[in-house]
Amino acid sequence: MFLETLLNHSNDQDQTVLLIDGDLYLYRAAAAAEEEIDWGNDVWSLMSDLKEAKRIFVTTVVDICEALDCFNVVVAFSDQDNFRHDIDPTYKGGRKKVRKPVGYRELVKWAKERYRSHTEPLLEADDVLGICGSAPGFDVIMVSDDKDLKSVPGSLYRPMTGEFSTISQQQADKWFLKQALMGDITDGYGGCPGVGEKTADRILAKNPTWNAVVNEYSKKSLSHDHALVQARLARILRYEDWDEENQQIKLWTPPQSPRGRASNDNNKVA
To answer: CA–CA distance from 196 to each of 145, 191, 216, 240, 250 (Å)?
Structure first.
């Protein structure tokens, strides 16, 4: 049971857990430590000072802890497999062409040895943050600059801006519906054609419901099922989307929908 194992810290003096997006901050540290070298005669190479990358990441973690006055840290990482590929095989397909910073994988290995960390099969780091950050009975602060975490009810700290927010259920649901409308090209799903941030805000300001999302897709001659695929790709998993007993993902199902009466087995990913 990864929730209890990860968040049960009764022996720790600090009861709050800072759950940090390891993917994001290790990537930044590795990228910042890269350096181009000109060997002359048009010969160039790329190198990384891994000691510098480690220093940057450690400094980032220390700064986060000091800002929140909490030093009980868990670093979350994505699994190499992703359940969203079963929903849409093209999900994040474009990122396969993007090179990881030099030394990134070795940096991840180092971080897992230095810090308490967690990787859950089939989940992204965001999902680990979302499930734990919205779990009742635990004091968790999600730490990430990824705007997608605004779709999770709970406490969120964004180090780049120093913004600390407590996201309500209503706010999280509205942000999720907004993402389902807008899509995310960098993640490989387009959302509803022609709908950007301003249009999504206008649609949901009047009617922040799933029906409003489906109606917008319908205007573009796109089905409910198509809209549902986009929503499931956009959905950062919450506690309610995770079957802790069976260690299974429960795919998001629209409220008060015929699909909402489907068997739970049809909406689980092993």
So the answer is: 20, 9, 12, 28, 28
Helix 197-206 crosses helix 210-219 at what angle (to 10 degrees)?
Answer: 130
Which residues neighbour 110 within 8 Å (Cβ) at sequence distance 6 or greater? 50, 54
Rounded to whole angstroms, the Cα distance separating 176 from 181 reads 9
Interval 122-157: pLDDT, tens:
999 999 999 999 999 899 999 999 999 999 999 999
pLDDT band at 1; cut points 50, 70, 90: low
Q: What distance in Å separates the CA atoms of residue 178 and residue 147, rounded to the nearest whole number?
A: 12
| CA pair distance 169, 24, nearest whole angstrom | 25
Tell me: the pLDDT tens digits for 209-238? 999 999 999 999 999 999 999 999 999 999
Please provide the average confidence, as pLDDT, over all residues in the chain. Answer: 91
Neighbours of 62 (CB within 10 A): 12
DSSP count for the chain of H helices, then E strands = 10, 11
Provide the CATH topology of domain 2-269.
Rossmann fold (3.40.50)
| Sequence-separated (6 or more) residues with CB below 8 Å from residue 164 | 68, 155, 156, 157, 158
